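Working notes for the structural subgroup meeting. M.R. asked for a predicted model of this chain before we commit to crystallization trials. I am recording the input and output together here so anyone reviewing the notebook later can reproduce the run.

Input as submitted:
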Amino acid sequence: MLNDPTAMSEDEKRKYVEMVTSTTRFKNYNETLKSNVGGVDSLSKRLEERARIEEEQRQANRRLLSDANLKAERKKKESILKMTEDKVQNRAKYKVQASEAERTKERLRREAERKMEDYWERKVKEEGKVLHPNGSSPSPAQPSPEPVVAETDDEKMERIEVEEKRREEEEFKRMVEEREKEIVRERERAEEVARAEEVMRVREEERAALRRVEEERIRLEQEIIEKEIAEKERVEFEKEEAARMLREEQERKQEQLRIVEEQKKAAAMEKIRMAEEEARLIREKLEAENPAGPIRQKVDLSGLSGVTVKKDGGGEKPKPKPPPKKAISEEDKKKAAKFGIKLDDL
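Returned structure, recorded in token form:
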């Protein structure tokens, strides 16, 4: 009966429509349930993805900070090593300079002693006396001291030269000490500058690392926001697409129902035409068989009330009279209603 919609009764048609409606509602409920479950799964996946991205960001930040600390520590060690090497080199240089100063001092001292000895030797040769190297009188072993000889111009010049040499040595020694102190001060200033530059460089590297970390965090947040926006747009698009498909499905079903109604109406009209044609043929047949008069006879018209025909004796055929209308029962109306026929219109 489902294969032939025109043969369905109103009750069967109603049950069929209810079945289709309940099936559609059940399908829509399943789709909604699947959509909700998919939404929950998608939300949990997004949360897991966000937690994973945040953990990766924290690990990247820790790696960057660790790298910055390692670089700073390595630079600090390199700076300390370089300072130590410079200190060793400077110490060696200072030792060389000090040894040179000592050699120069010793040379000047020997030259002064040699000149002093030459002076006393020359003095002895000139005066024929044995004098003490320091210019004093002979040793106390001699019976009587000799009178002090007056200092000559040459002796005075020699003494002045000796004093000048001594002053030069003291001045050179003082200059060497000042130079050593200046070198130490320059080294300390260089070490202070190097430490300050190292601190500034380390701070700059830390700021650069923090800046890179902040930029990476902002980029990840922007990516998360863009993904959320894209997910929302996708969900909205899927909802609109589902609503459109539902509307199209409803329109298609309405069109099918309209076609079924038209087919039922066409089938009912065809049955009415066939019933009228059959009734006409029966009347013509009865009239041809009974020319003397109508014969009342019941004729089955597929569930319709019968038609009576009056049959008289021979003679001239009278003009047939229309049969009297008979009241249509409710049972006949129900039978005709199955085919979409209204007996009140006949």
